[in-house]
Design a protein that fits this description.
The protein has helices spanning 8-16, 30-34, 43-47, 50-59, 67-70, 78-81, 89-101, 111-120, 155-159, 164-176, 193-197, 201-218, 228-236, 250-259, 289-299, 333-343, 354-366, 378-384, and strands at 149-152, 181-182, 222-225, 246-249, 273-275, 304-305, 348-351, 374-377. It is α/β, with parallel strands linked by helices and 387 residues long.
Length: 387
């Protein structure tokens, strides 16, 4: 085997790009054992080893930059949440990716996505002026000086025909509860969470700076997000850029409204519902009870738990750029979630994230389980159960 040269300069560069805890890793291997790639077969599973990838980064060695290695991580956080040394593994992955993407070597599949975010302010190739098309016929309020909450709708739910139902359902729920809310509109840009996770730091800074300036100019103080990914990045990454707001995911807000008697449902004990915890709502943001409380209020009974739930929930595969990745049938995490739900005799699999919704629907179709299992976003279930 040809010897590899240790490059401390490369290691230091990776660390400077965000992998600040890279050297904390003691190579215990717990991260690899917990990684969802260990649960599926295939080429990515064979190549991707998060422990080994970090070791390559520590030594500044070539090899971690291969697409099937570096860009396979879905940033689910399972490894990070259980690391005995507190290594910020997701940030290390981001830093390693930034060292590659920043050098102009983004994977070919990501280039159109990043190009669209540069040109249109969103990664879905949607014209900026069409960002508000989902609002047609809804009379969605505009955010103004006297509005309490700014409703930030995920780019996915602005442009994807299936996901727009999430935004529409949430508007219906907020109006029913008498919440003072409004949207800004076409001036909004992608929150940049996934853009940063795939390594385009320059683009993230551009998107975030535009949003911070816009939101502050409009007088935003409180933000409701439809997506856990927007929730996480607004709460954790915008503060250092001047974005000091109160940010809440819609499930927490609606749960509070139900508790306070401002929102009520007509429980319909019909289909058996299981709940899938999104990584960025659960492990990353510690929100587990609100979605379950809402499902119980809307259906009259607690949702069924999947075999891997709450802190141990299995990733859908959509984070860290995974939503734009082509993974062959039989190698998708989402397919394991579908089988979990079917095995538990669930008739509906609910989630509270537009990425999870997309990934689980695709997995259900690939397994041809549509006749056995319906995939719904929580907001859709709640809107249908309104009194």
């Amino acid at each position: 085997m040809e010897p590899k040269q240790v490059s401390l300069e490369m290691r230091d560069y990776v660390i400077s790009m965000g992998a600040e805890t890279l050297n904390w890793c003691m190579q215990c291997g717990l991260c690899t054992n917990l990684c969802p790639w260990r649960l599926v077969p295939g080429e990515r599973s064979e190549h991707f080893n998060i422990r080994h990838m970090q070791r390559l980064g520590q030594m500044g060695l070539e090899g971690f930059e291969a697409e099937e290695i570096l860009f396979s991580c879905t940033t689910c956080g399972m490894c990070q949440a259980n690391c005995p040394r507190g290594v910020e593994i997701v940030s290390n992955v981001r830093g390693m990716r930034a060292s590659i993407v920043g050098a102009g070597m983004a994977p070919a599949a990501l280039r159109p996505i990043l190009g669209s975010a540069h040109a249109n302010g969103n990664p879905w190739s949607g014209p900026r002026e069409q960002r508000t098309a989902w609002q047609e016929g809804l009379d969605v309020p505009q955010f103004g000086p006297d509005t309490e909450y700014f409703l930030f709708v995920c780019c996915h739910s602005c442009y994807d025909p299936r996901s727009t139902k999430v935004a529409k359902s949430l508007v219906k729920l907020l109006k029913a509860a008498g919440v003072s809310f409004g949207v800004i509109g076409a001036e909004e840009s992608c929150c940049g969470e996934s853009v940063r996770k795939v390594g385009d730091e320059e683009l993230f800074q551009k998107l975030a700076a535009a949003n911070v300036e816009l939101f502050n100019r409009k007088g935003v103080k409180k933000i409701i997000t439809t997506s856990p990914h927007c929730l996480w990045t607004f709460s954790n990454e915008y503060k250092e850029l001047g974005g000091e707001w109160e940010v809440i995911h819609y499930t927490r807000l609606l749960s509070d409204l139900v508790r306070d008697g401002k929102l009520a449902f007509q429980p319909n004990a019909g289909k058996k519902i299981a709940y899938h915890d999104p990584c960025y709502l659960g492990r990353h943001s510690d929100c587990y009870e609100a979605p379950r409380d809402l499902l119980a209020a809307a259906s009259g009974e607690a949702p069924r738990e999947l075999s891997r739930s709450q802190q141990l929930s299995l990733c859908c595969g959509g984070g860290g750029g995974g939503i734009w990745s082509e993974v062959p049938k039989g190698e998708r995490f989402g397919e394991l979630r579908i089988e979990d739900a079917v095995a538990g005799a669930a008739q509906v699999l609910a989630t509270a994230c537009p990425y999870c919704l997309n990934m689980l629907i695709d997995a259900c179709k690939s397994l041809e389980r549509q006749d056995q299992l319906e995939i719904l976003e929580l907001s859709e279930i709640l809107a249908a159960a309104l009194k």
